[in-house]
Amino acid sequence: GGTSWDGSSDADGCSNSGSLTGGDISPPGQPTCVRVTPGSLYHVGGWFRGESAICSVYGYTDNTCSTQGATPATMMGNFLAQIGTAQTGWAFKSTTFMAPTNFVTVNCGAVPSSNMDQLFLSTTLTSFSTP
Q: What is the mean pLDDT of residues 29-43?
């Protein structure tokens, strides 16, 4: 299923913002294709709250992310944000990967009762780990 906007839940507690809740934010066939530098380290993650969420990074050789780096697509990073009983507080989760290809997609999803905020793909981590 798809995501929905939760204007009452924000990792920073900002009343003028919110977060995504539940569903897959990068449905198959519609991911955002991002250029990366092969051999460089990247960080991917965000702030999560609830039962469970997962993010996966896949590598591709073309700028439309239709030619997979391997069959199936090379998975460069994968992490469970939270799993088990519902978490009422926000938790920062991330992973690091070395890009073996020129382009990647990041797919994140969560169960309907979970929230995701401030999702990122970056060569630096420090600016994202504090809400």
A: 83
